[in-house]
Specification:
The complex is a heterotrimer, with two copies of chain A (about 200 residues) and one copy of chain B (about 260 residues).
Chain A lengths: L2 H15 L4 E2 H8 L3 H17 L5 E6 L2 E6 L4 H9 L5 H16 L2 E2 H8 L4 H9 L3 E6 L7 E5 L1 H6 L21 H16 L2
Antiparallel strand pairs in A: 1-3, 2-3, 4-6, 5-6
Chain B lengths: L12 H11 L9 H14 L5 H22 L4 H6 L3 H4 L4 H27 L28 H27 L4 H14 L3 E3 L9 H16 L3 E4 L8 E4 L5 H5 L4
Antiparallel strand pairs in B: 1-3, 2-3
Classes of the chains: A alpha+beta (about 200), B mainly alpha (about 260).
């Protein structure tokens, strides 16, 4: 594969996997290209990002995993996005968490994070402070993780009489195909905290 | 003629009629009712596994067709015709059906266009927004968009789904490639180094699939046994921290019984 | 701001907002740069993505926003990441209902069923759960039936920037109400312009 084509494929894959990152071995499998060639192209790509002033993103290598990130000097620009109330980026995270809780309550933070694939403590904090969700109990087991559920204010906010009025779910979203991992992680954390 | 017609091949009685009209090369503006009705009834006979719910709709249409057919057989009285020129057209018993068919056909074709757009769009991938929550100042928790409604929630779930689709297979691939404990021990030590020698326990598990998690866990236990790392927890239920206690030469980690 | 710097900032912001998208007005607010300048830089950015073979990503107008997406010819590569790329495709019935709603919104279930000649509650439910349609109001009258319309996700799902980009309905052979109005308007305008 010629270098340019390989670079474009690497960029597309890096872009799509997001914060998950992807390693050389995975690239090599997906593209059926030798690891060495991949590494060379990745380093080329990095140089290209770094050296071009037009680029706002760059390539980061953390623990063998590659991911695209914004350049460090973009921090101020991105901060504005956080401070600007018209941007939806932050409320999106909260909305996702709220949606999961609405449909899967009672649910723990770990389960929510597993579904979203990202840390969710801040959005949970936000929603609690807005009284849209609340602690409704504790999960069984040693961890006794907090179980979250929606509040009356939640129903009020969305103009619902009861939870039954929520529109039907996209079936595949919350199917428990990750339950194995869930279960394992829960047991795992339980076991670990009980060791002390 | 083959009667191997499946019900789900048609999205309703109008769809079936359009199919027949097309296949019999009938002029939609001058439908031979006897022929079409006969064919239609043959077809619904052939569709053996009719769900009751849908069957009724096909049967209602059959009744409509029969009614139109019989009305066309009725002689038109001269006198009635003269009453008003306008009604000549409206008197054709087929008109309502034809109108319906033509109107329906428009949207059926539009649906085909949508299908094309759908498959074009499926060639293009985006990414979820970055998690910026760590950037917000503590005192100002993320504001909730005041205009969100229940449907925005569904939308949010839809996005989670799309993302999960991209995440999952990558992990299954990882599982297949047989991670060794040796590799994972290196990985753990390396990430600890990159975190400055101390890391939250959960940070050492950026993995999705079970096998990797288990192997990583075993590697941590092995590293603890060898006193390369230690684990601490300040208070009950708080996050565990893993600390890199000593720098190990690489070859020392190579001796693992697997 | 010089063009290169502006482009890098646009890229960083586009990257961060992901599939949430961002529009010119928001860019303008965040960066304190005139809309015209933003638009020029965006078009420059797009050209740059399109013309470089090294790039796996490009800039697209989706649902009223700008979004970064992978290039079309990257699809085969990325598909390898996705287990079952076609499993979520809409059924014929759902597409029909969606087409009717898209072109005739706001519209009630009964009107949809009348047009299709078949019960449509199942496809409607699917479409709601996939966030492609939503309740946009209630019909007047005793039933106060739900009126359905398309969502932003609809535009996004079909790669459209706005409803105006929907392909025109297949020729309107019939003298339905809409067309009469159209016809009237056409005649009216003809009459009007011929008078000048």
């Amino acid at each position: 594969m010629n270098l340019e084509l390989l670079m474009s494929k690497l960029e597309a894959l890096l872009f799509v996997v997001g914060d998950e990152g992807i390693n050389v071995k995975q690239f090599s499998q997906l593209l059926e290209v030798e690891s060495m060639e991949i590494e060379a192209a990745l380093s080329e790509l990095k140089t290209y990002y770094e050296e071009s002033n037009m680029r706002g993103i760059t390539l980061k290598n953390l623990a063998g995993t590659y991911q695209l990130t914004t350049k460090t000097d973009m921090a101020d620009t991105i901060k504005k996005l956080v401070e600007n109330p018209t941007s939806h980026v932050l409320s999106t995270a909260s909305l996702e968490v709220l949606a999961i809780i609405a449909y899967k309550q009672p649910i723990t933070r770990v389960e929510i994070e597993d579904l979203r694939g990202v840390k969710s403590d801040r959005p949970i904090q936000t929603l609690v402070s807005r009284a849209l969700i609340q602690e409704v109990g504790r999960a069984e087991g040693t961890g006794r993780a907090i179980l979250y559920g929606t509040t009356k204010e939640f129903l009020n906010y969305f103009g619902l009489d009861s939870l039954d009025e929520l529109p039907p779910l996209p079936e595949q979203v919350l199917k428990d195909d990750d339950q194995e991992t869930d279960l394992f992680m829960t047991k795992f954390q339980e076991a670990f905290s009980s060791e002390e | 003629m083959s009667y191997e017609v499946k019900l789900d091949a048609f999205s309703g009685p109008l769809d079936l009629l359009l199919h027949l009209i097309h296949r019999l090369e009938i002029d939609i503006y001058d439908i031979p009712m006897a022929e079409l009705t006969g064919q239609y009834i043959d077809h619904i006979h052939a569709m053996k596994v009719l769900e009751l719910n849908e069957a009724s709709e096909y049967l209602v249409m059959a009744a409509t067709l029969l009614a139109i057919k019989s009305r066309m057989l009725l002689p038109i009285h001269e006198g009635e015709l003269e009453d008003s020129e306008f009604e000549v057209e409206a008197l054709d018993p087929r008109e309502e059906l034809v109108n319906k068919l033509i109107e329906y056909k428009k949207y059926k074709e539009a649906a085909v266009e949508l299908k094309l757009l759908e498959s074009d769009r499926a060639l293009v991938y985006t990414r979820p927004p970055s998690d910026l929550s760590s950037m917000e100042p503590d005192e100002q928790l993320a504001l909730f968009d005041a205009s969100v409604n229940v449907y925005d929630m569904i939308s949010a779930l839809q996005k989670i789904l799309r993302r999960k689709n991209l995440r999952k297979p990558l992990s299954t691939r990882v599982a297949r490639q047989e991670i060794s404990m040796k590799d994972q021990m290196f990985a753990v030590v390396n990430s600890l180094r990159s975190f400055g020698g101390r890391s939250a326990f959960s940070e050492l598990f950026p993995y999705e699939d079970k096998t990797t998690i288990i192997v990583t866990f075993l590697s941590i236990l092995e590293l603890m046994k060898r006193q390369v790392i230690s684990v601490e927890q300040q208070n009950n239920f708080e996050e565990l921290f893993v600390i890199l206690d000593k720098e190990v030469p690489e070859d020392e980690l190579r001796t693992v019984d697997e």
